[in-house]
Design a protein that fits this description.
The chain is of the alpha+beta class. The protein has three domains: about 120 residues, Phosphorylase Kinase, domain 1; about 200 residues, Transferase(Phosphotransferase), domain 1; about 45 residues, no CATH class. About 35% of the residues lie in helices and about 10% in strands. It contains 14 helices and twelve strands. The strands form four sheets. A six-stranded mixed sheet has the order 1-5-6-4-3-2. It has a two-stranded antiparallel ribbon with strand order 7-10. Helix 7 runs antiparallel to helix 10. The radius of gyration is 22 Å and the shape is globular. The relative contact order is 0.12. Bound molecules: adenosine-5'-triphosphate and magnesium ion. The site of adenosine-5'-triphosphate has 23 residues, from strand 2 and strand 4. InterPro entries: Kinase-like_dom_sf, Plant_Ser_Thr_Prot_Kinase, Prot_kinase_dom, Ser-Thr/Tyr_kinase_cat_dom, Ser/Thr_kinase_AS. GO terms for molecular function: ATP binding; protein serine/threonine kinase activity. Its main location: membrane.
């Protein structure tokens, strides 16, 4: 049975020698190698025309660089959203003025860093996977740009950014228990969809930073640069270079390179554990025995008496005990050393969904946050507090009252400003 992925026919043209400098590093991946290096060996180049022909029917827009500069105010730092292994991401706005026929909407434009570790293959995988699928829990790719060396991706804008930011960045208020459940169910549905299509896809990079949130905390998967076709026919696995992110990748995959959909299930278990505990999957700042989250938490997952010890303190006890126990037992299964004992993602969805209905949420004491002297906004709720926050008419305690008062726009600006300050010294100015 052939292990050649469905998009391989397109790849023999992807890496000309002039594009060698795109190959390949990644900020966090385990091995600094191209994710699709086993697909392409040819040096000829897939033309943008070939690509648009292959994507007929996908509804993707082909943008010029000039149009995307217009959409993002020349990639101004005021529009900067963040940066990952592929390159920087900018907020933009597209409408008829940018390109006739476009629906007016906010977008996120991801720009390949030509001096970075990823390249054309990751870009192409993203275009081909997201061009092929549409699903409520996969981020929508609106279009792309392929001009000379430049490679860009244009996505729907996800107003609440990544789950990683909400879990681990200081200036975001703590997510409520129900919001955490909702996010895990959404992300689980995205993975289940990929695993259950006619030609299953293994996502390979399931992690908190790749789960994006809309204004209502609906989760969508992003970043398909490492995605692979799953085993076909009688195959039990595919063999591939080990790629992914430390702490999230399944142990058997790291050891053998054998990849199955169950590798994604392990990564899902790790993210669920981050949602339960509020801790990062790997944290070198903690005592040695606590650095690897899965190892540290595993003994408590199947023991209701110990579970409280590992729950995120910022939940302040405001969670369903029965729900947390069910989630913990599910996480225990997902993190099983044996891939066969891990559940299918469709079973994960079926286990998680009923937990939203559990009624045993403790009633929190009313917390009055006195307005500061320079407070001009009274005690009105911010968007983010409304979406994430008070349930059943109760006000939720904030991590920090002053930070909780930031609007979404202010939050984005604040994040951008902080990241910009960090990056300013390293980043060369973008060509306007
Ligand atoms: N569609 C989008 N809408 C809003 N923000 C986005 C969107 N896509 C990415 N971002 C933001 O841009 C930042 C960088 O995202 P990116 O996916 O490039 O990197 P990452 O996930 O942090 O790292 P990695 O390269 O390991 O995946 C993130 O902080 C994310 O919140
Ligand atoms: Mg990402």
């Amino acid at each position: 049975m052939s292990t050649v992925p469905w998009w391989s026919a397109l790849l023999p043209g992807c890496c000309s020698s002039e594009h060698k400098r795109w190959a390949f590093k990644a900020t966090k991946p385990i091995e600094k190698q191209p994710s699709f290096s086993d697909i392409s060996t040819s040096n000829s180049m897939l033309s943008p025309e070939d690509l648009s022909v292959s994507l007929v029917g996908s509804n993707l827009h082909v943008f010029t660089l000039a149009e995307l500069k217009l959409a993002t105010k020349s990639f101004s730092m005021g529009n900067f959203l963040g940066e990952g292994g592929f390159g920087p991401v900018f907020k933009g706005f597209i409408d008829e003025k940018v390109k006739p026929g476009l629906k007016a909407q906010a977008v996120a434009v991801k720009l390949l860093d030509l001096d970075g570790g990823q390249g054309h293959k990751e870009w192409l995988a993203e275009v081909l996977v997201l061009g092929r699928f549409r699903h409520p829990h996969l981020v929508k790719l609106i279009g792309y740009c392929c001009e000379d060396e430049q490679r860009l991706l244009v996505y729907e804008f996800m107003p609440k950014g990544s789950l990683e930011n909400h879990l681990f960045k200081r200036f975001f208020e703590s997510l409520s228990w129900l919001t955490r459940l909702k996010i895990s169910i959404g992300a689980a549905k995205g993975l289940a969809f990929l695993h259950d299509t006619d030609k299953p896809v293994i996502y390979r990079d399931f992690k908190a930073s790749n789960i994006l949130l809309d204004s209502d905390y609906k989760a969508k998967l992003s970043d398909f640069g490492l995605a692979k076709d799953g085993p076909a026919g009688d195959e039990t696995h595919i063999t591939t270079r080990v790629m992914g992110t430390h702490g999230y990748a399944a142990p058997e995959y790291i050891m053998t390179g054998h990849l199955t959909a169950k590798s994604d299930v392990y990564s899902f278990g790790v993210v669920m554990l981050e949602l339960l505990t509020g801790r990062r999957c790997v944290d070198k700042a903690r005592p040695f025995r606590e650095q690897n989250l899965a190892e540290w938490a595993r003994p408590c997952l199947n023991d209701p008496r110990k579970l409280g010890r590992i729950m995120d303190p910022s939940l302040d006890g405001q969670y369903s005990t029965a729900g947390a126990q069910k989630v913990a037992a599910l996480v225990h299964q997902c993190l099983s050393q044996s891939p066969k004992r891990r559940p299918h993602m469709s079973a994960v969805v079926a286990t998680l969904e009923p937990l939203l209905e559990l009624e045993d949420l403790p009633v929190a004491p009313f917390v009055y946050v006195a307005p500061a002297d320079d407070d001009d906004g009274g005690d009105e709720l911010t968007d983010s507090m409304r979406d994430n926050g008070p349930r059943r008419g109760r006000r939720q305690k904030l991590r920090s009252p002053s930070e909780g008062k930031l609007s979404d726009a202010a939050l984005c600006r604040e994040v951008g400003n902080r990241l910009r300050r960090n990056l300013a010294s390293q980043q060369k100015p973008m060509d306007a």
